[in-house]
Write a structure and sequence with these properties.
The chain is an alpha+beta fold. It contains seven helices and 20 strands. The protein has a seven-stranded antiparallel beta sheet with strand order 6-3-2-1-9-8-7, with helices on one face.
Length: 356
């Protein structure tokens, strides 16, 4: 998936369609003054781009809260006012993509003034912020923070949200300029009992702060509004094995291309690697309900190895080659997966080997 010149960055993102607002996986290439996107067919990038987004006169919004069930979206507004919605595989990838695109936007628009970075200034609540009013806005049904059911270490909790979602909301509403300021403000909301920790991770952070922030900017730390404290516990519900698998610590996540078991076609999936217990799950990022796994496997006793980049390896259907690796389960089920680069393949193999 190489070949273009002056490439700053490339990789998979999910893009919302302009006419029909469905979500499609595309391979994006960021260059000096534009962002190109391609369709991947049979594990290979098509020779011509499906579209080009000019960065001249473009503005970027990250985090973008336009889609409550898609918190990893970046919004680009082109010079002609066309809006492009792009979704990453994780918050870290979303933020790094946004930073790289913003850098290119500034380079393409040298007359634009950059905001001075004052993130090292201690955060103080602005005079126009009232915590009572802020928590009311956060609980507003249409534009506030969406409450959901989440899992942690085998338990499920209702009417809660993640720490990262809170910080995204504060930044997107321009309540705070930086995520670090959002953490400081959210910590004040905990101190004044507007927000309560839910589950082990966030509770331990409150009790073991040692002078640090009480709040975690984390996609696995759970919280609830104080009014709903006592309503979140679902521990009496029947917990199925898949919930146990999905409650482990996230070690790595990203977009990879996977060969299907029946039709042997190649599809891009969002892979999430978890430990305790060690499992690898994959999701269809284009589905509306993209938080439910399409499949997964236990990594205990698995074998993982890179495949030759020259020629089509045994077990591979179609003319797909390059950056491939294979996972063999204890039941002798073979998974064939393609990464976006040799370096990415090595990172995934190493991460999986540490859990097998």
């Amino acid at each position: 998936m190489q070949g273009e010149t002056a490439i700053s960055r490339e990789g998979f993102l999910v893009k919302r369609g302009h006419v029909v607002h469905n979500w499609k996986m595309r391979w994006f290439i960021l260059s000096k003054d534009q962002l190109l996107y391609y369709k991947i067919q049979g594990g290979k990038k098509e020779p011509r781009p499906r579209g080009i987004i000019s960065l001249e006169g473009c503005t970027l919004l990250c985090p973008c809260m336009d889609y409550a069930n898609r918190p990893l979206v970046i919004k680009l507004k082109a010079k002609n006012s066309v809006e492009h919605f792009l979704e990453a595989a994780s918050r870290e990838q979303r933020d790094s993509w946004a930073a790289d695109i913003q850098k290119m936007i500034r380079a393409a628009n040298p007359d634009c003034q950059e905001q001075s970075n004052t993130s090292n200034v201690p955060f103080e609540i602005p005079a126009n912020i009232c915590l009572n009013h802020l928590i009311i806005d956060m609980q507003e049904a249409s534009s506030g923070i969406k409450e959901m059911t989440n899992g942690e270490y085998g338990n499920t909790y209702k009417m809660c949200f993640t720490g990262a979602t809170v910080i995204d909301w504060l930044v997107s509403r321009n309540v705070v300029p930086f995520r670090s300021d959002g953490v400081a403000l959210a910590s004040l909301l905990i101190e004044d009992d507007f927000i309560k920790p839910v589950g082990d991770k966030s509770t331990k952070a409150v009790w073991n702060t040692a002078g640090t922030d009480l709040f975690l900017d984390d996609s696995t730390a759970l919280y609830c509004f104080a009014k709903n404290e006592g309503k979140t516990d679902s521990s009496n519900d029947k917990i199925e094995i898949p919930h146990m698998e999905l409650s482990g610590k996230i070690v790595k996540q990203g977009f990879l291309v996977k060969q299907g078991h029946k039709r042997k076609n190649w599809k891009v999936r969002r892979f999430v690697l978890r430990s305790e217990p060690a499992h690898l799950h994959y999701y269809d990022p284009c589905k509306e309900n993209n938080n439910q796994p399409a499949g997964g496997l236990s990594l205990r006793g698995c074998l993982v190895s890179a495949l030759e980049d020259n020629g089509v390896a045994p077990g591979i259907k179609g003319n797909v080659q390059g950056n491939l690796f294979k996972i063999i389960t204890t039941d002798d089920v073979h998974y064939y997966i393609q990464a976006g680069s040799r370096a990415e393949r090595s990172e995934w193999i190493q991460a999986i080997k540490q859990l097998t």
